[in-house]
Write a structure and sequence with these properties.
Shape: elongated
Structural class: alpha+beta
Strand order of the largest sheet: 1-2-3-6-5-4
Largest sheet: 6 strands, antiparallel, barrel
Number of helices: 16
Order of helices and strands: HEEEEEEHHHHHHHHHHHHHHH
Radius of gyration: 29 Å
């Protein structure tokens, strides 16, 4: 930032200042200093009792504040660092004139946003350090954590819910093949993780990750490419390996259960996953991301699991997939709320970017209630067994999320708890549907 009288005045609001410089031997030296303003001029009079402040090189003056909160951490964090030159005065002190400054105040910008805005500066520093050392210097993460972050493994519930439901429905309709079931779960999981990695690649290349300064644990992607934890080549290799695994397992399933329907579903799943962020379609950039996710993690996953067991299509798995499809789309929908400014800056015209807050909230509530209404309709027309009405027990979570969106719409980090509840809504509803099918299966076996 540019240094003016206002910046220097802010510096004097700190009770203590520290002056720092690099000595002749190349070591940093810091000393607490007393100070006073020099009239209305944008400079300070400094006096460091222990050391003489040099006047032949750049020095920095820093003021900082932090308040401990026992058992919690810290708050009221802020600092201001001003770089400039010092000039000697007759009383033995110096006059400091600032030339450029850098600072942060937690009251003005949350810590996590500040950290994100500092990423480009950090990357430039590491690049410069790499040049000076003659060897690459980059951030690192232990391999297990790197795998967890890159693939976003915890989000596999989006795959497990529809696949398990598809298998449960298939178990009621005929013989059950355990090998095919295990391969279905593995193949679907590989495809999901491959799509996650691919999305990160294209979001980084498009500038969406760089523009998003408010990522959360549920939104903003893995950011491993943006942070420099992996190179583009490395991340592309990860994606290729995961896709290869999914395709290989799919071919084995086709050998076990030859079916044109299964082949078509598998190809459709891969194409939808790629089209989500990859050019030329880039569905999420056109406000079609929710539809793509609903289709991919609803009918495609659930029907795929069903067909892998039975070799045929049926209406029951289609109807059962619709509530799951809507709720998984709503996870993406809510997760886009904290990303909306960065998405808009990158040309990512998601529904949340296009709609007003009131419209976003109404659409969420309406869609969530439709998901549960479909369960009732499915049971009412006889396509789903009556025990699946257990899913209605999750309805209170809908209103909890709805109220949370309204209260925390403009606060990305307090919205995280709401996003977590929304994920639970999908998971719990799916598990309750699964439990309903297990009950129905048990009742069928008892007859």
């Amino acid at each position: 930032m540019t240094v003016d009288g206002k910046v220097m005045q802010r510096l004097t609001e700190y009770p203590f200042l520290v002056v720092t410089w690099v000595d002749d031997a190349g070591y940093p030296v810091s000393e607490a200093t007393t100070f006073q303003t020099d009239g209305d001029a944008p400079r300070l009079r400094l006096s460091a009792p222990g050391l003489a402040i040099p006047t032949d090189r750049e020095v920095s003056v820093t003021g900082s504040h932090i308040r401990p909160q026992p058992g919690v951490g810290y708050d009221e964090r802020r600092y201001l660092c001003v770089w400039g030159r010092a000039s000697a005065v007759e009383d033995g002190g110096v006059t400091f004139t600032g030339e450029h400054a850098w600072g942060w105040d937690e009251a003005e910008m949350p810590f996590f946003e500040y950290s994100e805005r500092s990423v480009p500066q950090s990357r430039r520093y590491l690049e410069k350090l790499s040049e000076e050392r003659g060897s690459p210097v980059k951030p690192r993460l232990a391999l297990p954590w790197l795998i967890l972050r890159t693939t976003r493994l915890p989000f596999l519930t989006a795959t497990l819910v529809p696949v398990l439901l598809g298998l449960a429905i298939a178990a009621r309709h005929g013989p059950f093949d355990w090998l095919a079931a295990v391969l279905t779960i593995l193949g679907a999981s590989f495809a999901h993780l491959a799509i996650n990695v691919t999305n990160d690649i294209f979001d980084t290349l498009s500038g969406a990750d760089a523009a998003n300064v408010n990522p959360t644990q549920f939104s903003g992607g893995s950011r491993v490419l943006h942070y420099g934890l992996l190179s583009l080549r490395e991340l592309s290799t990860w994606a290729a390996i995961l896709y290869a695994g999914a395709i290989a397992i799919g071919l084995v399933l086709l050998a076990i259960r030859p079916s044109l329907e299964l082949l078509a579903i598998g190809v459709a799943g891969v194409l939808i996953g790629l089209a989500y962020t990859a050019p030329p379609l880039k569905l999420v950039y056109r406000g079609l991301g929710e539809i793509a996710v609903a289709v991919g993690f609803g009918p495609v996953m659930l029907l795929g699991a069903y067909v892998a067991q039975t070799g045929r299509l049926a209406w029951e798995p289609v109807v059962a997939s619709l509530p799951v499809a809507i709720l998984i789309a709503l996870i993406l929908y809510v997760n886009e709320i904290p990303d909306r400014r960065g998405d808009a800056a990158a040309g990512k015209r998601t529904l949340v970017v296009r709609l007003s807050q009131a419209a976003v909230e109404r659409l969420y509530l309406g869609a969530a209630l439709v998901a549960f209404a479909l369960v009732v309709v499915g049971v009412g027309v006889g396509l789903m067994p009556w025990p699946t009405l257990l899913a209605l027990l999750a309805i209170p979570l809908v209103f909890q999320v709805y109220r949370g969106i309204d209260q925390h719409y403009n606060s990305p980090y307090t919205l995280m708890a709401v996003m977590g509840t929304n994920v639970k809504l999908h998971l719990y509803t799916g598990l309750l549907l699964f439990a309903g099918y297990l009950v129905a299966l048990g009742l069928t076996l008892l007859r």
